[in-house]
């Protein structure tokens, strides 16, 4: 029979040699690599502590005051704190903080608003949309009739005329705005106007950029969308998890869609960590951090252009950088593997109108959240752009400089946070 862990009890990796080796390997990887993966960020010590706290042991199926188990007093208070902080941070009427991930949150939004076979208009996966925007391998493409809009060939910006024409033609029940590989601010008001014209719900997938909206750096979808999907990691630097913001009229439908329709009891330790990070993001230091992420991304995009990459849309308004790698003679997949071998983590992405298959991709997608949390600023990002260019040209000497730069950064491996 298990016993409650007392202070001083050896941790699992101290008595499990195999697990200990793997943990050491991950710590070493984080120490020696520069991370430009758009979906990752350094977590604050408090987030690590809350995820490993006593809250992890509590089962709290249901909602505060309406649980299926007893002994949920502290769990109720934690969830209510996280929800109220999310509402305050993003200016929302109602927040559901239970979703385990952003994809689960989107599934819940679909469950609240749609029936199988309903029409949806979303950003094409080939033009920067997420798998939940209609991929045949995802619930969105299997259960709904999804039409995809895209970007203009001339400048890579979202083609709002095409969005309007497709909305009029398909009369979707949901217009889904948002993308995973689109570095520009989205005109949420324009999407609202189109949704109203065809009588559609507007759902904003703002998982990538909602932190910038909280910091006041780009427009927020909250005043315009019926439902907003966000995540607590990425820019916010919190635990991996999702959340939903919605209007008062949809609150009950959203809550019922999250539980009991798509998931069971929430992870109370995750709720506690979300509450913490929502509180931290409501402080001025987070605004400074978010602004630095954008400044770093803009410098990175300019530096990559000088190295022969073509920035998609011509640059960035956010922490995201997407570039066409065609001039290097390599696919995005080849470049990300070559970069990983040198100790630099970045991702591949589709380039609109390019013939390269999605599995290989023609471009690269990067984000500056992690490197900014580590303390890198514009001069270092200029250097990183040059290093990426050298990697593309087959310069194996870049690896040593990458390791040296990674090991010189502070904080490392979640030891601290920048805000």
From TrEMBL:
Location in the cell: Cytoplasm
Report the InterPro entries cross-referenced here: PyrdxlP-dep_Trfase (IPR015424), PyrdxlP-dep_Trfase_major (IPR015421), PyrdxlP-dep_Trfase_small (IPR015422), Ser_HO-MeTrfase (IPR001085), Ser_HO-MeTrfase-like (IPR049943), SHMT-like_dom (IPR039429)
Q: Which family does it belong to?
A: Belongs to the SHMT family.
Please list the residues that bind (6S)-5,6,7,8-tetrahydrofolate. Answer: 129-131
Organism, as annotated: Streptacidiphilus monticola
Q: What's this protein's name?
A: Serine hydroxymethyltransferase
Which residues belong to any copy of the Serine hydroxymethyltransferase-like domain? 15-388
Which molecular function terms from Gene Ontology are attached? Answer: glycine hydroxymethyltransferase activity
Give the highest taxon in the source lineage. Answer: Bacteria
Per its UniProt record, the required cofactor names are: pyridoxal 5'-phosphate
Q: Which PANTHER family match?
A: SERINE HYDROXYMETHYLTRANSFERASE, SERINE HYDROXYMETHYLTRANSFERASE 1
Q: What class of enzyme is it?
A: transferase
Q: Which reaction does it catalyse?
A: (6R)-5,10-methylene-5,6,7,8-tetrahydrofolate + glycine + H2O = (6S)-5,6,7,8-tetrahydrofolate + L-serine
């Amino acid at each position: 029979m298990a016993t409650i862990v007392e202070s001083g009890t050896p941790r699992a990796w101290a008595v499990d040699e195999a697990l200990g080796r793997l943990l050491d390997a991950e710590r070493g990887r984080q120490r020696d690599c520069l991370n430009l993966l758009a979906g990752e960020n350094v977590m604050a010590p408090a987030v690590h502590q809350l995820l490993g706290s006593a809250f992890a042991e509590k089962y709290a199926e249901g909602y505060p005051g309406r649980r299926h188990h007893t002994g949920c007093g502290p769990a109720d208070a934690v969830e209510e704190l996280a929800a109220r902080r999310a509402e305050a941070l993003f200016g929302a009427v109602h927040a559901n903080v239970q979703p385990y991930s952003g994809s689960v949150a989107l599934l819940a939004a679909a469950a609240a608003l749609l029936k199988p076979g309903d029409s949806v208009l979303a950003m094409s996966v080939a033009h920067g949309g997420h798998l939940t925007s209609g991929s045949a391998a995802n619930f969105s493409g299997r259960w709904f009739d999804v039409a995809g809009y895209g970007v203009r060939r001339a400048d890579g910006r979202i083609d709002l005329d095409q969005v309007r024409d497709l909305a009029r033609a398909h009369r979707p029940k949901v217009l889904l705005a948002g993308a995973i590989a689109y570095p520009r601010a989205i005109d949420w008001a324009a999407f609202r106007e189109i949704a109203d014209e065809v009588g559609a719900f507007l759902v904003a997938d703002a998982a990538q950029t909602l932190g910038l909206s909280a910091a006041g750096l780009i427009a927020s979808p909250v005043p315009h969308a019926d439902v907003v999907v966000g995540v607590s990691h990425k820019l916010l630097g919190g635990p991996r998890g999702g959340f939903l913001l919605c209007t008062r009229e949809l609150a009950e439908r959203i809550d019922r869609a999250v539980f009991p329709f798509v998931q069971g009891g929430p992870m109370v330790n995750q709720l506690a960590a979300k509450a913490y990070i929502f509180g931290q993001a409501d402080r001025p230091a987070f605004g400074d951090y978010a602004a630095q992420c954008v400044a770093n991304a803009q410098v990175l995009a300019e530096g990559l252009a000088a190295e022969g990459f073509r920035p998609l849309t011509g640059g960035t308004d956010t922490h995201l950088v997407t570039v066409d790698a065609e001039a290097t003679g390599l696919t995005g997949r080849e470049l990300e593997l070559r970069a990983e071998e040198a100790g630099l983590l970045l991702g591949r992405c589709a380039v609109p109108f390019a013939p390269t298959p999605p599995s290989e991709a023609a471009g690269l997608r990067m984000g500056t959240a992690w490197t900014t949390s580590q303390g890198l600023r514009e001069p270092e990002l200029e250097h990183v752009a040059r290093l990426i260019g050298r990697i593309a040209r087959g310069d194996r000497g870049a690896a040593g400089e990458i390791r040296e730069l990674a090991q010189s950064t502070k904080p490392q491996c979640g030891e601290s946070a920048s805000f």
